[in-house]
Design goal:
It is built from 6 helices and no strands. It is mostly helical. The N and C termini lie far apart (26 Å). It holds the Pfam family YidB.
Amino acid sequence: MSGIFNDVMGTLSELAGATGLSQQVHSYLSQLLTPDTLNTMLAQAEQAGLGDKVRSWVGDGHNLPISTDELRTLLNNQQVQAMVDK
């Protein structure tokens, strides 16, 4: 399961670095990524058509990457704003 964390953290770090919010994003993610919220995020990924990527993250094989645009389909404006507000 570490693949999902690496991919998501890498993409969010890239986005956060571009806006100077890297420290806040990392702090928020440590609070956000609990087992319950992770399960919800995985379900949202399936609904967004990213099921193959999700399954690659929880399987034993190669972890497929997630793009910035794909990540944006998983996080709505309120979720992003909540990160910024933290």
